[in-house]
């Protein structure tokens, strides 16, 4: 069984923070839906503006929410088999790529239909950079962790770089989302400087993206929440008493200090 034990003193704290992050994520997604349906006429394929609305929705679902949960699989599923978690992590990352491609198609289609040039803003540069880094890291991880002929030593050496690049990519995704919301608000809200309701909603949405990103980064970077190796097998076995130990309790005899997890449960002295 390739399972790992959880660091029990910190599990409640981890899942409490995870629940808070999930609530923040749901609230952020609800703000996004309110913005799209209450102020941007929802989703569709009939007009360029309706097609564009797919872009923030798909990018948020993929590059923010699915990505964030994918990088937390190994810390959340402490009682799950590691191979199952690796498969779920890989499938989720592949789904992120599909969502990102569909989001790019939506925004490029909108620009072509409206005669707007592509790749001229900081948001577009950041977005394309994040997607390229994500795809390269996905290919990197697929080769080292899914390809059966990959060397075990190379896998061990590649893991820290794969994790760090993923964290950097998530940070850039949050920054890209915030710049995209600000750019859309400036271009589409004529009286943005007067702080209309839509403008305030956009500001709150960008702020919540930052808060959500910080909570995810805390969960993924806190050392106490890291998946720990299971304890060695001898520690789980009932130790055998010494042959020369007295058969009755002797207060002057120094009893052996064995593994306290199981050994002290069936005796009448404690350490």
From TrEMBL:
Ranges annotated as spanning the membrane: 17-39, 51-74, 94-113, 125-146, 158-181, 201-220
Topological relation to the membrane, as annotated: Multi-pass membrane protein
UniProt feature coiled coil, ranges: none
Cofactors required: heme b
Domain annotation Cytochrome b561: ranges: 20-221
Compartments where found: Membrane
GO molecular function, one term: metal ion binding
UniProt-listed PANTHER family: CYTOCHROME B561-RELATED, LD36721P
Name listed for the protein in its UniProt record: Cytochrome b561 domain-containing protein
Source species of the chain: Phyllotreta striolata
């Amino acid at each position: 069984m390739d399972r790992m034990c959880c660091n029990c003193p910190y599990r409640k704290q981890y899942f409490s923070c995870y629940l808070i992050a999930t609530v923040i994520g749901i609230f952020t997604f609800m703000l996004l839906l309110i913005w799209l349906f209450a102020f941007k006429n929802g989703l569709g394929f009939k007009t360029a503006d309706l097609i564009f609305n797919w872009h923030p929705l798909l990018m948020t679902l993929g590059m923010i929410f699915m990505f964030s949960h994918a990088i937390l699989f190994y810390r959340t599923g402490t009682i799950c088999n590691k191979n199952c978690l690796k498969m779920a992590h890989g499938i989720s990352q592949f789904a992120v790529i599909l969502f990102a491609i569909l989001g790019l198609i939506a925004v490029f289609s909108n620009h072509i239909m409206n005669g707007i040039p592509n790749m001229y803003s900081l948001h577009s540069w950041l977005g394309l950079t994040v997607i390229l880094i994500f795809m390269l890291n996905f290919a990197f991880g697929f080769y080292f962790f899914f390809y059966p002929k990959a060397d075990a030593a190379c896998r061990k050496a590649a893991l820290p770089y794969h994790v760090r690049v993923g964290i950097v990519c998530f940070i850039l995704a949050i920054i890209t989302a915030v710049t995209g919301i600000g750019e859309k608000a400036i271009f589409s809200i004529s009286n943005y400087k007067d702080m209309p309701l839509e403008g305030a909603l956009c500001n709150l949405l960008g702020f919540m993206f930052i808060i959500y990103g910080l909570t995810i980064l805390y969960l993924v970077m806190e050392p106490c929440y890291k998946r720990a190796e299971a304890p060695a097998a001898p520690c789980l076995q009932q130790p055998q008493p010494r042959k020369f130990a007295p058969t009755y309790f002797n207060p002057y005899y120094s009893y052996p200090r064995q593994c306290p997890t199981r050994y002290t449960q069936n005796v009448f002295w404690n350490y």
